[in-house]
């Protein structure tokens, strides 16, 4: 499991860099980093630059984060996704719920 979390306190932006696999194995760590006792950050960056694969639990985690961060008012950017991951996110309609870069 690989998950690197950085919090820019000045901008109140939480950045999560995921390892090779974005799947249920990171659920507990993702939950603690994003949804735990902390109040929602102003913005989030989910960096998929190293991710080779993700499963449906990853999509669920992103939806939980969106809800926690304020739903339609949430500022969540998904960055550095390879073309296959971007395709999966688009097919699932996540390009309408999140900002994809």
TrEMBL record:
* Entry-linked InterPro entries: MlaB-like_STAS, STAS_dom, STAS_dom_sf
Q: Where is the STAS domain?
A: 3-101
Q: Name one Pfam family in it.
A: STAS_2
Task: Return the protein name.
Answer: STAS domain-containing protein
């Amino acid at each position: 499991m690989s998950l690197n979390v950085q919090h820019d306190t000045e901008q109140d932006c939480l950045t999560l860099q995921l390892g090779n696999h974005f799947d249920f194995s990171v659920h507990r760590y993702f939950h603690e980093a994003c949804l735990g006792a902390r109040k929602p950050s102003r913005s989030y960056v989910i960096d998929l630059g190293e991710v080779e694969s993700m499963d449906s639990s990853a999509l669920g985690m992103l939806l939980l984060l969106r809800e926690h961060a304020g739903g339609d008012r949430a500022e969540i950017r998904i960055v550095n996704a390879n073309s296959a991951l971007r395709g999966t996110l688009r097919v699932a309609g996540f390009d309408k719920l999140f900002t994809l870069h």
